[in-house]
Amino acid sequence: MEIIRTITDKDIGEKPRPVSKFNERKAARAILFNKNKEVAIMTVAKFAYHKIPGGGVEEGEDLKTALEREIKEEAGATAKVTGELGRILETRTEYPLKQESFCFIAEAINIGKPEFTDKEKEQGFSVSWMPINEAIKVFEKETPIEYSAKFMHLRDLCFLQEAKKRLGL
């Protein structure tokens, strides 16, 4: 899958810290459309930012299985993957992490209720659906202050912008 962007501390306005060893993580994410051609956007109220559905690949999972689980948990949906969008590489020095996020285009088949974890509930997670141009505007207006949120925000804004470009929306 093509690399769309690499994000480092400098890209989010942070000074890199010296790191001797990084943890590595793979994640699966989706630009998830409903039948009205709106995208699923997650609100994280506690830290005042938005993200797209997705998360880490757990032990024993492949990308597809992780993506299906994350879409079910965060958007309350089952989905059909319709294409690959690309991947973004993140190098975070505060929590030494190298993360590779694989993003797919998907279509929601059935939409039910999200299955947020206790941590996600504590952080005020919710899902909403909106046209992709509106979602991009929401992302462009916010400026998260929490370190990890800055990475997630920039990463997912890049994915939304790439989807808009590639799909001609």
Please provide a written account of the structure.
- This protein is α/β, with parallel strands linked by helices and 169 residues long.
- The protein has a single domain, classed as Alpha-Beta Complex (Nucleoside Triphosphate Pyrophosphohydrolase).
- The chain is built from four helices and eight strands.
- A five-stranded mixed β-sheet has the order 1-6-7-2-5, with helices on both faces.
- A hairpin with a 4-residue loop joins β3 (39-44) and β4 (49-51).
- α3 (132-141) packs antiparallel against α4.
- The model has no long low-confidence stretch (mean pLDDT 95).
List keywords for this structure.
globular; Nucleoside Triphosphate Pyrophosphohydrolase; single chain; 169 residues; 3-stranded antiparallel sheet; alpha/beta
The total of helices stands at: 4
Distance between the termini: 22 Å
Q: Indicate the structural class.
A: alpha/beta
Reported CATH architecture: Alpha-Beta Complex
CATH top-level class: Alpha Beta
String of helices and strands: EEEEEHEEHEHH
Helix content: 25-40%
Strand order, largest beta sheet: 1-6-7-2-5
Overall geometry: globular
Fraction of residues in β-strands: 35-45%
CATH topology heading: Nucleoside Triphosphate Pyrophosphohydrolase
Give the oligomer, counting copies of the same chain as homo and different chains as hetero: single chain
Query: Could you report the average pLDDT, rounded to the nearest whole number?
Result: 95
The major beta sheet can be summarized as: 5 strands, mixed
Report the C-alpha radius of gyration, rounded.
15 Å
Low-confidence stretches: none
Per DSSP E runs of 2 or more residues, the count of β-strands stands at 8
CATH superfamily: Nucleoside Triphosphate Pyrophosphohydrolase
> What is the domain tally?
1
